[in-house]
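Box 4.2: Ligand-aware structure prediction
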Amino acid sequence: MTVTIYFDNSATTPLDPRVAEAMRPWLSEAFGNPSSLHALGRRARDAVEAARAEVAALIGATPQEIIFVASGTEANNLALIGAFETASAGQRRLIVSAIEHPAVLETARALEARGAEVVRAPVDADGLVDPQWIRARLTPSTRLVSIMAANNVIGTVQPLADIAAIVEASGALFHSDAVQAIGKIPIDVEKLPTDLLSLSAHKLHGPKGVGALFVREGVKLAPIVHGGGQERGLRSATENVAGIVGLGRAAEIAREEMAADNARLVALRERLVAGVFAACPRVYLIGHRERRLPGHVCLGFAGQEGEAIRLMLALDEADVAVSTGSACSSSHAAEPSYVLQALGFDAFRARGALRLTLGRFNTEREVDRVVEILPGLVGGLRRIATARN
Ligand code: PLP
């Protein structure tokens, strides 16, 4: 079997073997329910609480401020819906950015149908939200502002500290979907005045199907899942012990290795960008040049934007896994991306991003291999397109 070069770490990351090892006992002999009072149950409870402390340590929170949930999507739903259910009369406004993940945008739309007034903040050509635009839209009726830490399609990192400080001063709540940022860039809620923050284990070399919501002490949320009252009543259900242990271990590794990983990934990213730019004519980088996730490259090929899917498939044939935008929208892969349209791309150009996202296990050799084969594939598609026209 040929080994796939996996450059799709924004869709999901491979499980770190150290995480798999930490999870193993909790999938076999250590099967207790953390709510049980006997020894097996107490052992599981201790493991869940140790993981909670690790997740808290990664972001500068206290363990009580971490609520385990089943995904980044659920964390976002709990943040938005939970905040609206506890809003006082008249607090109807919700501000989100136009490039949020569907887990925020669709939740906002569902709240709109229930009477919320949703304001969608535009972004500039690099994908940045303007903090002053947000400031001008904050009213006494604003319950929540939700702005992602980093975008999953283009990799742009938002000026979160500025936005959070402005929202804090207004008295509204601030939430950030930090699913793409956690474990890759430092986020410290001791310094960042955010009330709520979402993360997901499978984006930081942890398992799928487990995430967490940071809920700052004193912030009132209503649950969206009702039942036995686990997770301080905010998320009923028997805890996914193995998944939570995996998230805890992934958080611990990220805390210890983030600085080194980050530097290595920035170097790999720059090597990839420089190599592709030297070899491919009319290529352009999408997203902010510097304010971007360390391993995130999003490319457009001028005149060939409609061929991004073909390029992705040609790379797949060559055992290189990349994506054309967001894996979350693979069923709409040939449609224009709303994220690129928000950057000002027309419908044609908005179909054309090639996203290559690097992670902990990628190497220089893999980057060099992709730099070697990509120009030929792009050139091949150009010739086909020219012959067709
Ligand atoms: N938010 C962002 C920015 C994401 O990139 C993703 C996943 O792609 C999610 C939320 C959803 O996370 P999950 O897959 O854990 O539901």
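In the box above, the bound molecule is pyridoxal-5'-phosphate. The first strand starts at residue 5 and ends at 6.
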